[in-house]
Amino acid sequence: MTLVAGLFDISTQHYFVVGALLFTIGAVGLLVRKNTIVMFMCVELMLNAVNLTFVAFSKALDDAAGQAAVFFTLIVAAAEVAVGLAIIVAIFRRRQGVTADDIDLLKG
Amino acid sequence: MILGVAASLVAHNPRIDWFGIAPEGTLVATAVAVLLLDLVMPRRDSWQTSRLASVGVLVSLGFVVALYERHGGTTPMFGGAYVVDNYAIALKGFFLVVAYVTILLAVDYIGEGDYYQGEFYFLLLTSVLGMTVMTSARDLITIFVALETISIPTYVLAGYRKHDRRSNEAALKYYLIGAISSAFMLYGMSLIYGVTNSTLLSDISDKVGQTGHGKVLAVAIFLSLIGFAFKVSAVPFHWWAPDTYEGAPTPVTAFLSVASKAGGFVAMLNIIFFGFSNRSNVWWVVAWLLAILSMTLGNLTALRQTNIVRMLAYSSIAQGGFMLVPFAAYGIARDHGHLSVAQTSFQAVVIYLLIYGAMNLGAFGCVIAVARRTRSADIEGYGGLFTTSPALTVCLSMFLASLTGIPPLAGWFAKFVMFRSAIDAGGWAGTSLAIVAGVNSVIAAYYYLNVVRTMWFKAPATEAGPVQVPSALGFSIALCTVLVLAIGVYPQLVGHIGDLAAKAASVATGS
Prior knowledge:
heterodimer, A: mainly alpha, Helix Hairpins, B: mainly alpha, two-stranded antiparallel sheet, 20 helices, 2 strands, 78% helix, 1% strand
């Protein structure tokens, strides 16, 4: 019984671990996936890992600044996604596909 | 923080120095006015928005000068998150002048192409607003928001030729790298917040000096520096820069390579000097490596470029490496306990930024002018330019010689203060920085002067008349030429500004 209780007793430390894992998954996803929309989703995953970490620290430290930071991150991320999707639409209109490897006119 | 703000609202009105934020207020008002004017103007008159934008920037610059004349010293606002001191005022002035010159560079380029004009100036002004806020930001969240205000409009600007695949690609690469770098930076910031229990740089500076949480802090500082390294395109986080610079409209490239890069450096100055200075043992190695790699790889790759915009892109990566030298020098000196180097290295970064801005904008102005005739940016196309347009050739030669660092042009003074900071730092690390920077200055001379040689001595590739330079473009090139000459002959002009900035910073850091 105590073992089970110990397993399911979620402390703030667990949130840091989940945050770190999410961030890593996002970073690895960026490296291995080739579709730019999936790459966007990976960036969002990384930003959400940041939010989780901020909120967890805010709770652990009993300080509201971390929660305020999350607001700013959310707003900025929303603005960023709006611009990013617009760029993707512009590309898609010209070439019917958004695979990162095919977007290679500029090099050298 | 929100609770704190709410509490202070109830207790007493927060002290807002409205005069202190007048430059930013003017920029916001101008940006909105530009957008509205564009809405009511018929399409063929929409070039008028550029006039409104440049007047707004000049009024804002007037407020900055008035702020400097006020001698009010430092005014902290929002509990110290936003500070208007001489350092902030000096760089606000720099960014506004850069904005003005960029508008001049862009007027004819944007007016003659099939572009939406009002939105262009709106985006430009918004980005400049982010830069002026950045100079005053002394809080992690403020720095983050300012950095994104700088970046997000420039993603759109890079893709402004939306029917051109290369411009699309430039925007996408820039956007992806920008988003990734802000994610890294933010994760670093969240860990810093967790360790120090504050987002204010002054509090962070006190807390990071105490022992404990060494590993978490090291990871946090490392992650945020990676974020900034992407923004200032330091090697090995630089690969997006040449592609974005080549694909973006050339006036936007000039803006990116000067203003946006300077915005990243100002963020780095704030966070390193005001936040992390007590943990120099963690970051000096990172800054040292970034500086050495950026200088060397930037210059070596620039050697084999045949397109002048790509060459200037790699050159700006290398120049970014030179600007990182004082950061590393400061860290090294601090690690050895020489606190006096803090002033000279801070000064070196500020002076280098000011001079780099003048000479790089000038060089891009000439490239835009030449591209009006040749429609390309191949260095071959510069052959025989001296016979057809001698004045433009003399100007471009001066900017390139200044980038090389040949006296009596401004570039030598930038190099001089950079070398001085590295040598003052001493030790094997400082000396090696100075040696690598010296070798790189010689390598850089080759490709800069190669363009000069092509212009003066090669036969023209095609029969072509003189380059027609419109008056706005001509004025901006002339302005940069005067600045480059004046600063080179009388370096105290920027030396004084650097002094003021460093003094204001030393008051803030208490060193």
